[in-house]
């Protein structure tokens, strides 16, 4: 069979295709990015970042562009495809993310950093930058990580339980304002009906997960898989016996953690300790 002929010459990758369509539509209209920003009421630099693939923007700006160009929802469809595109993540995450999207419940233990599902944009940017990312690649990975939060925020979101080691909450961001925003975000999340957040105090001492960040995914089949992670790699564990051992360690660790109510109060106390911006 002869190879499929590419008719349009445009990318088949969702993120790149979305950026290409934005560039072509604007070029066809004869407007500059600055003129487009003035007409739609958005900072024109946002359109530059969207056209370079550094950010996808939000649904509101995409809907405004659809209306402006008369594209009848086409851009919003492309935006949704780009936002859900798993190829924007490193290869080692893709199998895990496929399972994560199918999970009926999730529970997690963090020994060192917050899980991506709970991170603010500022936290994600500093964490990813510390791992060596910069420029356009950093912007793209931060945007991709923000897109993952839809898993917990969408209608019918699965229940999610997380236990955060005290060390996670004592490792501050360099910018007090960004750290305050992150703590406030955790407080808001702790009030959601599908999310249970507990803090493991330092006084709990050593435990079975002292060196392990782990996420457990309960699948539709009833099977549970685990994903362990560190700064330079991760491992998807599907062997039932290995997962069972880790689950027992997680259960024992949960017994040492503060209650959800006490955990919320603990984070609020930490929030009070963060220096305020004198200008506010």
Give a short synopsis of this structure.
The protein has helices at residues 14-29, 33-40, 44-51, 59-69, 74-83, 91-102, 121-130, 135-148, 150-153, 166-170, 176-190, 240-256, 260-273; strands spanning 105-110, 160-165, 195-200, 213-218, 224-230, 233-237.
Instruction: Give the N-to-C terminal Cα separation.
Output: 66 Å
In which order are the strands of the major sheet placed?
A: 3-2-1-4-5-6
The total beta strand count reads: 6
What is the 3D shape?
globular
Give, in order, the helices and strands: HHHHHHEHHHEHHEEEEHH
Oligomer: single chain
> Over the alpha carbons, how many angstroms does the gyration radius reach?
21 Å
Q: In percent, how much strand structure appears in the residues? A: 5-15%
| Main sheet properties | 6 strands, mixed
Uncertain stretches of 5 or more adjacent residues? 1-5
User: Structural class of the helix and strand makeup?
Assistant: alpha/beta
Give helix % range.
40-55%
General description of the model:
The chain has helices at 14-29, 33-40, 44-51, 59-69, 74-83, 91-102, 121-130, 135-148, 150-153, 166-170, 176-190, 240-256, 260-273; strands spanning 105-110, 160-165, 195-200, 213-218, 224-230, 233-237. By secondary structure, it is an alpha/beta fold. The longest helix is centred in the C-terminal third of the chain and has 17 residues, at 240-256. The model is unreliable at 1-5 (pLDDT under 50). Helix content is 51%, strand content 13%. The chain has a six-stranded mixed beta sheet, sandwiched between helices.
């Amino acid at each position: 069979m002869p190879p499929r002929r590419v008719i349009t010459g445009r990318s088949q990758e969702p993120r790149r295709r979305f950026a290409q369509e934005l560039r072509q539509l604007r070029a066809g209209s004869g407007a500059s990015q600055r003129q487009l920003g003035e007409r739609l009421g958005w900072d024109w630099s946002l359109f530059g970042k969207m056209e370079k693939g550094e950010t996808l923007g939000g649904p509101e700006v995409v809907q405004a562009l659809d209306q402006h160009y008369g594209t009848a929802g086409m851009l919003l469809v492309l935006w949704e495809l780009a936002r859900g595109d798993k190829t924007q993540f490193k290869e080692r995450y893709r199998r895990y993310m496929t399972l994560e999207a199918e999970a009926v419940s999730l529970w997690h233990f963090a020994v060192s950093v917050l899980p991506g599902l709970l991170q603010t944009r500022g936290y994600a940017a500093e964490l990813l930058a510390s791992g060596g990312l910069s420029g356009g690649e950093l912007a793209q990975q931060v945007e991709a990580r923000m897109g993952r939060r839809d898993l917990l925020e969408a209608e019918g979101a699965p229940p999610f339980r997380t236990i955060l080691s005290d060390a996670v909450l004592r490792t501050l961001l360099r910018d007090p304002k960004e750290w305050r925003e992150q703590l406030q975000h955790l407080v808001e999340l702790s009030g959601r009906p599908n999310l249970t957040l507990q803090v493991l105090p330092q006084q709990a001492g050593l435990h079975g997960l002292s060196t392990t960040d782990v996420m457990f995914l309960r699948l539709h089949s009833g099977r549970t898989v685990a994903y362990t992670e560190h700064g330079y790699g991760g491992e998807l564990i599907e062997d039932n016996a290995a997962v069972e051992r880790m689950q027992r360690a997680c259960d024992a660790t949960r017994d040492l953690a503060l209650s959800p109510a006490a955990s919320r109060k603990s984070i609020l106390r930490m929030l009070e300790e963060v220096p305020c911006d004198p200008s506010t």
